[in-house]
Specification:
One of its GO terms (cellular component) is presynapse. The chain is an alpha+beta fold and 1003 residues long. The protein contains 27 helices and 37 strands. Among the domains are: 176 residues, no CATH class; 320 residues, Deoxyribonuclease I, Chain A; 76 residues, 2-Layer Sandwich (Alpha-Beta Plaits), CATH 3.30.70.330.
């Protein structure tokens, strides 16, 4: 690719629509893009149009079109490349620069500021593509040699930006761009040459920076998943060996922004199991057999994560997966010879996996399995072990190709080259994920400088890089409520196939779901420093059980059979300077376990239901704990936690909010616990605290609090009553709560539209909950003598009629200056029925029309060319009689091609077929893609079949693990003892529960 083969022209049309014309020396046609429509124009038409357009850029290739918002799209043009070598007579290029060209405005207009970050991301040297003048023989970087031999379909885990939906053949215009690393060398073997390469492909299914994205998502995709292929091509022979790496397939994270603060935090064991099952199902479908090499160590959170991973794999239906656990740091520190033990284990696995060997057109050997390697971040330790595996396999590959017999020192030459390639591959994988090269262990000074650079990268630059990754892969769907809702209803692959029909799918949500009713308890209590959990007062007065399981107004325990219990605690620690800097979590654990004990004790007397801690998060004094029935864990997806500080304008966490979101079946639910500004007259600050919490909390995929189907917002909001203390107390004695409600600040602000718009609250038929003398029924008798107020509240937002309030009240626990408040709800969650989904999707597709939204018009009797004097009458009928705007047109032979805004308009325009135009000519109208419905139905049938099979596999394995309840506590990981078997010598071949006794004791 010696010249820039793509030229971009543009002009603004008379109707102020910006039009782009693309010319390619590699194609016999032009491409026109305007008003969201794409048209392929023949050479003559394109050349005629080109004269009226202005050239403003040229480049080496097109990556595709990225839509950031509705009506805000960009063409990504490759403007800088660097050749890295040739494979199969195809040139392979590294992308060094790109240009984002707006499709909606002149190039000189101001662009979205995020475009700069996207340009930087794509210009880092981590994206590659292959080119050949023979378009039928382009080397597909997304496919391994074995896959490439059996299919021509790109692996969309490693490739994006196709635009076949526009009716344009993507292969004619787009490069197949891949993120990762491509390293190619030529080795002379006597008078002949061999090509060797290491290709690493980063999956786009869960991509992100080192600390931003960890673990697995609900679809079974893990962070930093990289497929690495070791390739040798010699004469008519080819051999390749594939390895994979990826984050531990459990729900875990490493939050924190400061050096040393990134501690491992795991979500409940049972919540991770469906995702782990999906992950290994996918691996087996892609690669056959799987062996896992786990390099996690025994320090800090790694031991917790490693033990959880081993236990989860043993407990799953994939207990046949061999796991080798090797504490790389500890073992190598003891002795460099420790690697021989690992080699011994790996040799047998390589023998089982084998590798691919092709001679001519005949395959002599297939790779039957894959080695999956992980450490904590899948960087340095993983790089070292994958190099070790690659070098061991190299000996076998060379023997099979006969290279080791040709020349005495040729084996040494291959080993030297591959060691260098593996080192550079490790650097490149580290740069994509961590922003710096790998830590090699050879130079302490270099490793130290890279470690410092990583710290700066992680703390200062990762958030913008993560947003760029998300925007690049998700485009306008990032943070989009409709797409977020659709993702809860339909398989991801179905949404990818039908992006324009997503809103119609969501509108018909009820048709594909059935309601499943849950009971939810939501309680809040300001515990005044949290020290009185086990106070003697509890022994003689009421206990936590009386708050969570109130006897009034219920007459039977059946009503208290909660599916979810959400507990919000405020001032769980004293709000002093020390806790503002680093709050103790001791009280958090005490209250979490104490409440769990109260729940378990009550249920032992009634229905013996088991609960698990789904989430427990603390922000200084605010703590939110979610307990759920264990059988519900497998139905919960997309669990995420957020927090925001609102104290001193957001600088401190003495006030703030903790948020937990999840999807139950297909219904998204959000719990928020807040502590707002105190003070009788601080209404504006409280309002600001609410708005800050609502605005600033961000979850993965751009989700916000407001996009959820159901929101429960509870806490100490600190809103007061605008009356004097004595007047309030007199009304309380008379139980004249309706009078007090009129002066309640929260209700006043809510009615004014300043806070909690669209939120509901139960009737305030109970006395104000603040401020009491501790261990007393008397309101504040101190010198300040604060006026009583309903500071503690539970509100909910539900715009779909899914929530019914059963009771709203308070408890009489007296160990704090606040009384606890609770609300009990009946909630309908919507459960997807996959068979009804398929029916509904097929029906929507048939009603939405062809995705290219293009019609073909012809005039009866004109079989060679379309009469141009008929264009205006056709446009007039479309626009004036049918109200359908015309986006783009072209004439080819006897047909006038017209692109309309949507497939629905294309179907509507068929009503013009066989009509007589004003000039007396008969018009024929057909769809450009008349068989679109059959094509899509066939594709979707396959996708739904895959979804059903995966669901059946998961249902079959669920009984293995749903009864297990292991509390993984990151704060107590140092107390975990190891089994008699060393962590570096752990191999699992069978489904065994031998370790559960140990885990229950230590967690």
């Amino acid at each position: 690719m010696s010249i820039r083969g793509f030229r971009i022209y543009g002009k603004t049309l008379p109707n102020n629509v910006f039009s782009i014309l693309i010319e390619s020396v590699h194609s016999e046609s032009f491409l026109q893009i305007q008003a969201g429509a794409l048209l392929a124009l023949n050479k003559d038409v394109g050349n005629n149009l080109k004269a009226s357009y202005t050239k403003f850029s040229d480049g080496y290739g097109l990556m595709g079109i990225l839509r950031l918002f509705e009506g805000d799209s960009y063409l990504i043009l490759i403007t800088g490349v660097f050749s890295v070598g040739q494979l199969n007579n195809c040139d392979v290029y590294k992308i060094t620069n790109v240009q984002f060209i707006s499709l909606n405005r002149e190039p000189t207009d101001i662009l979205d500021p995020r475009i700069v970050d996207l340009q930087k991301l794509l210009s880092t040297g981590s994206f590659y593509f292959a080119y050949s003048s023979d378009r039928q023989n382009v080397f597909d970087l997304t496919l391994s040699s074995q896959k490439r031999h059996s299919t021509k379909v790109s692996d969309f885990r490693f490739y994006c930006f196709a635009f076949n939906r526009y009716g344009i053949d993507a292969d004619d215009w787009l490069v197949q761009c891949m993120c990762g690393s491509v390293l190619i060398r030529t080795i002379y073997v006597g008078h002949r040459t061999a090509k060797v390469a290491i290709i690493s492909r980063l999956s786009g299914d869960r991509v992100g920076t080192r600390f931003s994205v960890r673990g697995v998502n609900d679809d079974g995709n893990v962070a930093n998943f990289v497929e690495t292929e070791q390739l040798i091509s010699f004469e008519d022979q080819e051999s390749s060996f594939v390895q994979i790496r990826g984050s531990v397939p459990l729900f875990w994270e490493q939050p924190g922004i400061n050096v040393g603060s990134h501690k491992v935090k795991l979500k409940p064991f049972e919540v991770s199991m469906p995702a782990l099952e999906r992950h290994y199902i996918q691996l087996k479908n892609y690669y056959g057999g799987v062996a896992t090499v786990n390099l996690l160590g025994s320090k800090e959170g790694e031991r917790l994560l490693s033990t959880a991973f081993q236990t989860a794999l043993k407990t799953s239906s994939h207990s046949d997966v061999q796991m080798i656990s090797f504490d790389y740091h500890a073992q190598m520190k003891q002795s460099k010879d420790s690697v021989k033990y690992l080699l011994k284990k790996i040799d047998s696995i390589i023998g089982d996996c084998q590798f691919f060997h092709l001679k001519g057109d005949t395959v002599f050997k297939y790779q039957k399995g894959v080695i999956r390697t992980n450490c904590l971040d899948c960087l340095d330790r993983t790089n070292c072990v994958q190099t070790l595996v690659g070098m061991e396999t190299l000996v076998l590959q060379m023997a099979l190709l006969g290279l080791d017999q040709i020349k005495a020192n040729i084996s040494t030459r291959f080993e030297e080259v591959f060691r260098d390639l593996w080192q550079k591959n490790g650097d490149q994988c580290s740069i994509v994920n961590a922003g710096t090269g790998a830590l090699e262990g050879k130079s302490k000074l270099r490793d130290a400088s890279r470690s410092i650079a990583r710290t700066i990268q992680n703390n200062l630059m990762d958030s913008s890089k993560q947003e760029s990754f998300d925007l690049l892969l998700l485009g306008c769907t990032f943070g989009n409520r409709i797409f977020d809702k659709a993702s809860n209803l339909l398989p991801a692959k179905v949404i990818r196939e039908c992006p324009t029909e997503v809103e119609a799918f969501v509108d018909r949500e009820r048709e594909m779901c059935k309601a499943e009713t849950l009971t939810v308890f939501a309680g809040t209590w300001n515990v005044n420093g949290g020290k009185n959990m086990y106070n003697v007062a509890f022994r003689h007065e009421q206990s936590l059980e009386s708050w969570i399981f109130p006897t009034y107004p219920y007459n039977s325990n059946e009503s208290l059979d909660y599916d979810i219990i959400a507990i919000g605690l405020e001032e769980i620690v004293d709000l002093n300077a020390g806790n503002l800097v680093k709050a103790s979590t001791t009280n958090q654990r005490v209250w979490r376990d104490g409440i769990k004990t109260a729940i378990d004790d009550f249920n032992k007397k009634t229905n013996n239901v088991k609960y698990a801690v789904l989430a427990c998060e603390q922000l200084v004094g605010v703590c939110l704990i979610i307990y759920v029935k264990t059988h519900l864990l497998g139905k919960i997806r997309d669990l995420a936690i957020g927090e925001v500080k609102t104290g001193l304008g957001g600088a401190t966490g003495n006030k703030g909010s903790v948020v937990v979101r999840m999807t139950i079946h297909s219904t998204s639910v959000c719990f928020v616990c807040s502590h707002f500004a105190a003070g009788q007259n601080e209404v504006v600050n409280r309002n600001d605290d609410f708005q800050t919490s609502l605005r600033k909390v961000r979850f993965p995929l751009g989700r916000t609090i407001g996009v959820h189907d159901i929101i429960f917002w509870l806490g100490d909001f600190n809103y007061r009553i605008n009356l004097g203390g004595e007047e309030v107390k007199a009304a309380v004695r008379q139980q004249n709560f309706d009078y007090l409600v009129k002066f309640d600040q929260l209700n006043q602000q809510k009615e004014a539209g300043n806070v909690f718009s669209n939120f509901n609250e139960g009737p305030l038929n109970f006395a104000p909950t603040y401020k009491y003398d501790t261990f007393s029924d008397d309101y504040d008798t101190s010198e300040k003598c604060r006026s009583p107020a309903w500071t503690d509240r539970v509100l909910w937002c539900d715009q779909n009629g899914l929530v019914q309030l059963l009771h709203y009240g308070r408890s009489e626990l007296k160990t704090s200056d606040h009384r606890p408040v609770y609300a009990i709800f009946r909630v309908d969650t919507l459960k997807v029925q996959i068979d009804k989904c398929e029916e509904m999707v097929s029906d929507v597709i048939c009603s939405m029309g062809p995705p290219d939204s293009t019609i073909l018009c012809s005039i009866e009797g004109y079989n060679d060319s379309f009469p141009t004097d008929c264009c205006s009458p056709i446009y007039a009928k479309l626009q004036q009689e049918l109200g359908i705007p015309v986006l783009a047109t072209k004439i080819e032979g006897q047909y006038l091609h017209i692109v309309l805004p949507s497939g629905v308009e294309a179907l509507a325009s068929l009503s013009m077929d066989q009509i007589m135009l004003e000039n007396g000519r008969k018009l024929n109208v057909t769809l450009r893609s008349p068989n679109w419905a059959e094509t899509y139905t066939e594709k979707l049938s396959i996708l739904f079949k895959e979804a059903k099979e995966e669901k059946n596999e998961l249902n079959g394995s669920a009984d293995t693990w749903t009864a297990i309840n292991i509390n993984l506590d990151d704060e107590e990981d140092e107390d975990i003892s190891t089994t008699g078997r060393p962590i570096g010598d752990t191999t699992f071949h069978r489904n065994s529960f031998a370790d559960f006794e140990l885990l229950d004791k230590n967690w």
